[in-house]
Amino acid sequence: MKKLLALALTAAVSVGAQAQAFPNKPITFVVPFAAGGPTDLVARQLAEAMRKPLGGANIVVENAAGAGGTIAGTKVARATPDGYTLLVWHIGMAATTSLYRKQQFKPMEDFEFLGMINDVPMTLLGKPQLPANTYRDFEAYIRANGGKLNLAHAGLGSASHLCGLMWQSAVKLDKSMTTIAYRGTGPAMNDLIGGQVDVMCDQTTNTTAQIEGGRVKAFAVTTAKPLSKHKLLKDYPTLQEMGLKDFNLTIWHGLYAPKGTPPDVAKKLNDALKVALKDPEFIKKQEDLGALVVTDNRVTPEGHKAFVGDQVKKLKAVIDAAGQFAD
Q1: Do 262 and 19 form a contact (C-beta atoms < 8 A)?
Q2: How far apart are CA 80 and CA 112, in angstroms?
Q3: What is the pLDDT along the chain (327 residues), one digit of tens a residue?
Q4: How far apart are CA 209 and CA 247, in angstroms?
Q5: Is 65 strand, coil or helix?
Q6: How far apart are CA 142 and CA 122, in angstroms?
Q7: Beta bridge pairs of residue 115
Q8: What is the phi/psi pair of residue 76, to 5°?
Q9: Which residues contact 269 (CB under 8 A, 6 or more apart)?
């Protein structure tokens, strides 16, 4: 009995010492997408902003792209729960439960929720040749021609895929547009610009430059309130203003650790995240991407998990109704 007690005390002291020393080696942010994309940029900017509050820790970004984000999710879910392998993922974290029938991790059970990072608005776009210049005209044209038109997205589970599903569900088209999946935003956007596809909904991080350059037509934003501070999108209506009640979609990003990460380590990571989200340089970089840094209760682990749980339910209804699933 005394030996067992001594071993337990030794283990407790060891865990406490490990948490107190954290971090004492590089931390890895695993990103489910290729380098250079919006989520990759968010992760790299966050890594820089969290270094100082973590005592100058070295934070590296690893891109584990593929399978709609589930490769990266599986990697982090199975990682040693010591705080050194973390996941930066967007709304796909909530969608994957419904999209993938065979999955090697459970988003709501296999992670410690460390806090939300940002919200990225979406824009509803049309090809430059589309015969509409206002949202009203755009919706009328889609209603009249939906069965003949194509809706592009960047792949199953991508932000553009989820936005397109939600918008079609909200407007209740008699005939849905044909959905065309691409391997990433770049080729989808190129075909929209070239007129090979008709409609796309994607993040401001991907669309602002194309709208400003006149290469695509923009009709509305997906946020609950107008983007009154955005230099370009402030003049575009929200879908709620256009009659789609309660339509509010942003592509949010969150930070996750494997389930079982020591509470003291998780707290240090959350504390560092909160400091980073108040860093003026990080805020400015996010605004330049068209993203809004989270400032509400979702920066707490509890608020973050509750929000994602609500999003899982919301997206499940849309995905089930559309009947579009991965293997």
Answers
A1: yes
A2: 13
A3: 455 444 444 444 444 445 569 999 999 999 998 888 889 999 999 999 999 999 999 999 999 988 878 999 999 999 999 999 999 999 999 988 888 777 789 999 999 999 999 999 999 999 999 999 999 999 999 999 989 999 999 888 788 988 998 899 899 888 889 999 998 888 999 999 999 999 999 999 889 889 999 999 999 999 988 988 788 899 999 999 999 988 999 999 999 999 999 999 999 999 999 999 999 999 999 988 878 899 999 999 999 999 999 999 988 888 887 666 665
A4: 24
A5: coil
A6: 19
A7: 255
A8: -75, -40
A9: 54, 83, 86, 114, 255, 257
CA–CA separation, 171 vs 165, rounded Å?
Answer: 10
Name the DSSP letter for residue 235: G
Name which of 75, 78, 2, 3 is nearest 32 in CA terms.
75
Distance, C-alpha 92 to centroid of its chain? 6
For 194, what's the count of Cα atoms within 13 Å in the CB-facing half-sphere? 8
Q: What is the 8-class DSSP label of residue 225? A: S
Cβ–Cβ under 8 Å, residues 28 and 62: yes
Question: What was the pLDDT predicted at 11?
Answer: 46
Q: Do 39 and 255 meet the contact criterion of CB atoms below 8 Å apart?
A: no
Q: 302 exposed, middle or buried (CB, 10 Å; 0-12, 13-18, 19+)? A: exposed
* pLDDT confidence of residue 157: 78
Q: Tell me, what amino acid is at 308? A: V
- Give 7's contacts (C-beta < 8 A, 6+ positions apart): none
Both tokens assigned to 38:
């919006």
Q: Which amino acid is at 81?
A: P
Report the C-alpha gap between 289 and 254 in whole angstroms: 16
**Of 298, 299, 271, nearest in space to 53 by CA:** 271
Euclidean distance between CA atoms 179 and 293, whole angstroms: 31
Q: Which residues pair with 152 in a beta bridge?
A: 180, 200
